[in-house]
């Protein structure tokens, strides 16, 4: 069968989506009726001047939208149109395969094939020489002693985190460490202060553990000392949870002078500090953690995940002296002990310098991607750092964050609006977070940034107007 979709084709968005939408419109207008067989992929590709792969993706998309049905050995046929399903699709965005969606939405380091190779090589080596304790350990709840010892040296020498081996706990990533630290000193109903915009994981954790979370004003550097001092006097929090290095989502990083001022406020109020230092390795050596200024009242949390490979969920929690016996029962209750094999890989990489090599490579890769983002977003206002995972983009007056997120998703790019990072229910900033690491292919990243830049220069479609 020959069909003409050109009257219904739009120039906006990926070609396969345009074809799927054209099929939808042709069905609505009666050009294509239920039970009609669509042309073979190659025939339609030749007619539209696109690749066979593009038509295949368009047919697959149309099937997900409920427009067509693929029958093995028979071809692709028009279904009976379900108006309710189509209306829902227009409201919520089109379903896509993961590979089709350009992902600028998730906090993810760049992970080129060389990283995968190193991981596999390390696993192969461990198969030959790993300590028997790695597979038989059950008693050392805080972690295998040699793994804790090496981690302790690295934390002290590379990150500047004070503490003895007895004060280090191995955990399954920074999120696990953060939960252990908070649960050690915060009870149900207690109040915890954090930055007004913060990682959504901490917000979810407050709901899980049942503590109150209140935001403190931030600026381009991060949390503001005067605002923190006022909040401590007014609310008398049980703890303060801060991310001084590359705050998610803004990328703000406290200067040494600002860190001194924050530490003075916390010392004066005698409040527990929980320092989320998960992005420490994305900065060159030199920044001193807040914990170094307040060792007796601080918990320090970090991991290797953001600077090496995402699957290396090796986390490190340093607890203040005298708190280990409070923290260990929480570790035992949540996971008994951190996974020894994962920490064995981390231990090997700490020993042979791979961690620092990968972290340095990560900083270089992110710097290249930040430069690409700066070129694509030229003329628009955004905050970033040279080695940050993200760009924190300010939107033109015409756009709201959720509107842009929806429209970008319609056109094949996933981004994150500001709402998930808001501690309190205040008007959402007209900002979106663009994450630069999840897409391993720089060309796909470039296409995604190009699409976002184009949308910024257009008015939002009427169907995306949102009433708050």
Automatic annotation (TrEMBL):
Pfam families: Aminotran_1_2, GntR
Keywords assigned by UniProt, alphabetized: Aminotransferase, DNA-binding, Pyridoxal phosphate, Transcription, Transcription regulation, Transferase
Domain of life (superkingdom): Bacteria
A molecular function GO annotation: transaminase activity
Transmembrane segments: none
Record domain HTH gntR-type: where: 13-81
Family of the protein in this entry: In the C-terminal section; belongs to the class-I pyridoxal-phosphate-dependent aminotransferase family.
Protein name: PLP-dependent aminotransferase family protein
Organism per entry: Modicisalibacter tunisiensis
């Amino acid at each position: 069968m020959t069909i003409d979709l050109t009257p219904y084709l739009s120039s906006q968005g990926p070609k396969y989506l345009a074809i799927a939408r054209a099929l939808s419109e042709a069905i609505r207008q009666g050009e294509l009726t239920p039970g009609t067989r669509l042309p073979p992929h190659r025939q339609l590709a030749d007619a539209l001047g696109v690749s066979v792969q593009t038509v295949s993706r368009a047919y697959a998309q149309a099937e997900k939208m409920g427009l067509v049905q693929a029958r093995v050995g028979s071809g692709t046929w028009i279904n009976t149109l379900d108006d309710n399903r189509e209306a829902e699709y227009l409201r919520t965005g089109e379903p896509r395969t993961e590979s089709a969606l350009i992902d600028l939405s998730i906090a993810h380091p760049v992970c080129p094939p060389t990283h995968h190779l190193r991981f596999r090589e390390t696993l192969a080596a461990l198969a030959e020489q790993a300590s028997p304790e790695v597979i038989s350990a059950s008693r050392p709840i805080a972690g295998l002693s040699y793994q804790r010892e090496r981690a302790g040296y690295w934390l002290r020498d590379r990150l500047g985190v004070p503490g003895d081996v007895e004060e280090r706990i191995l955990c399954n990533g920074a999120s696990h460490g953060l939960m252990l630290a908070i649960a050690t000193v915060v009870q149900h109903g207690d109040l915890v202060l954090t930055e007004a915009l913060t990682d959504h994981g901490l917000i979810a954790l407050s709901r899980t553990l049942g503590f109150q979370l209140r935001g403190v004003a931030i600026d381009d550097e991060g949390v503001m000392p005067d605002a923190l001092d006022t909040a401590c006097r007014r609310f008398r929090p049980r703890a303060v949870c801060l991310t001084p290095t590359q705050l998610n989502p803004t990328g703000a990083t406290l200067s040494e002078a600002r860190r001194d001022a924050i530490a003075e406020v916390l010392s004066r109020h005698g409040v527990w500090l929980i320092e989320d230092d998960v992005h420490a390795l994305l900065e060159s050596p030199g920044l001193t953690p807040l914990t170094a200024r307040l060792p007796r009242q601080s918990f320090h949390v970090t991991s290797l995940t953001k600077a090496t490979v995402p699957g290396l969920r090796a986390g490190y929690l340093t607890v203040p002296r005298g708190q280990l016996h409070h923290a260990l029962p929480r570790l035992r209750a949540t996971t008994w002990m951190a996974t020894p094999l994962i920490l064995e890989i981390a231990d090997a990489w700490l020993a042979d310098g791979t961690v620092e090599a990968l972290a340095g490579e990560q900083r270089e890769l992110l710097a290249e991607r930040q430069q690409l983002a700066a070129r694509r977003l030229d003329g628009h206002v955004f905050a970033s750092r040279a080695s940050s995972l993200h760009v924190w983009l300010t939107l033109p007056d015409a756009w709201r964050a959720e509107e842009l997120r929806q429209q970008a998703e319609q056109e094949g790019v996933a981004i994150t609006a500001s709402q998930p990072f808001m501690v309190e229910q205040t008007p959402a900033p007209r900002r979106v977070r663009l994450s630069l690491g999840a897409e391993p292919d720089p060309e796909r990243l470039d296409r995604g940034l190009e699409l976002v830049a184009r949308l910024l220069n257009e008015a939002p479609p009427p169907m995306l107007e949102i009433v708050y």
